Amino acid sequence: MPITDTFYAFPIDRQMYPVFKGKKHEHWTEAARRHGFTLIGRAVDRLHVVLECKTCGDATLKRISVVLGHNPECGNCIRKRREAAAAKVGATLLGPDPKGDRHYGTYKFACGHVDRRQHTRVEAAAEGGHDLSCETCTTAQHTSEAAEHGWTLIGPAARNDQSYRQYEHECGHKQDVSVGNMRAGDVNCAGCGESWTSKPSKIYLLSFMLPNVPVIKLDYSNNPTFRLRQVQLDPSETPGTLDREIDVETGHDAICLEKAMHRYIKTHRPDLIVERIHFDEHLRTTSEIYHERGRALILALIDAADNGWDPNQTDNWQQFTSLRDTDS
Known about the structure:
Blueprint: E1 9-12, E2 15-18, H1 26-34, E3 37-42, E4 48-53, E5 59-63, H2 64-69, H3 75-88, E6 92-96, E7 104-108, E8 114-118, H4 119-126, H5 135-147, E9 151-156, E10 164-169, E11 174-178, H6 179-184, E12 201-209, E13 214-221, H7 224-231, E14 240-248, H8 251-268, E15 289-291, H9 295-306
Antiparallel strand pairs: 1-2, 3-4, 4-5, 6-7, 7-8, 9-10, 10-11, 12-13, 12-14, 13-15
Helix pairs in contact: 3-4
């Protein structure tokens, strides 16, 4: 059925709206034209008009005050735009929000789960602003990450911060923890006093290929693999690898060993230190970056730590190392 005012009703969005017999004023027609529509009639009552979109040809019902004083939009064009945005992030727009909020819609994600999402966030994700995550899958991921470190995900955080969740420690204590810290296992339980200082840790060596020079990073963490990802601003520009890691009984011991190593390098081989200006735009760190030529020396220091060197007792770390060319 063509869109016309010669029938008893207009077909709009699969509904039939009764024609309202009344004059189509010239300034109404001109206002519709300026906004990309053709005014083809009046419907429902004296306050509404029917517009034909010049882009898609579909009809839309608008209050005449919107046409005259605002910027009317075509519902069909909006729907197509939202469907295209959803498709770009692997989702499907199923329909309107079941709660009746016009800013939200019902979407089916690539994983198969269905949930409501704000339309503007879906469009922002399609433009590359952020990922469109499935709440069900995200919750499952957070639950798994917490379980790895002896915690149970409870739900949203008590504080108003989207980066935090509430967790329960195996000792029974509940507290808010940032998702990033829980993922890395960098969590201090305020109930039983377990902290990074008493938990097992590691000394590790990372390699990065900066645009102009290869560098290495000596540090400590209970999760070097996570630290590798965390320190890179853009992994495609600075490919990195985890080259060596050793277990240390506690975080306190790890930081003592790490500081002793950095102190030795600064005292005896300051030429190995890479100035921050050379890596600041590529790595999310402020120090502890060394030239590749210092690899043998640093590996020897790590060997010493792995074989029992205690920097608080002796500085003669060489007796604890394997035979290496340390370039010293």
